[in-house]
Amino acid sequence: MSNRKLEELRIWNDARKLVKEIYLLMKDNRDYGFKDQIQRATISIMNNIAEGSEYHSDPVFIRYLNIAKGSCAEVKSMLYLCEDLGYCDKANRERLHKQLHSLTSGIYKMIEYLNSPKKEPTAPADKNPVDR
Fold first, then answer.
1. Rounded-to-integer distance, Cα 92 and Cα 94, Å
2. pTM, full prediction
3. Number of domains in the chain
4. Is residue 122 included in any domain, yes or no?
5. What end-to-end distance do the CA atoms of the chain give, in Å?
6. Is residue 126 part of a domain?
7. pLDDT band at 118 (very low <50, low <70, confident <90, very high)
8. Which of 4, 8, 85, 122 has the greatest number of CB atoms lying within 10 Å of its CB?
9. Which of 69, 82, 73 is nearest to 22 (CA)?
10. CATH number of the domain that 58 lies in?
11. With contact defined as beta carbons under 8 Å apart, do 101 and 74 qualify?
């Protein structure tokens, strides 16, 4: 994938929206350790997508996307704790989990796409494929 424009990547835009949602959810939270961790994990999703996209190398981008997927799992886990500690209600946790599930699926689909075999242009019938 030679030319990636960050702002056109749906997964990056979805991650950006999730960061905003988490920041709004945590804005009045005084458990600074928890607040910092969930915000950093969410930002990690967005920033790993961004950083990986800039390398213009599919294997490197895939590595960063896998890191972003790991951060998605961390945020998912922390959202359960968020509910358990009373920092959010079940409805908010479920809503954010749906966003996170959609984002994780998008990242997975991007990895699948980048891993898919690329089609080579076919050679004209009168040319030897070795001469290409």
1. 5
2. 0.85
3. 1
4. no
5. 22
6. no
7. confident
8. 4
9. 82
10. 1.20.1440.60
11. no
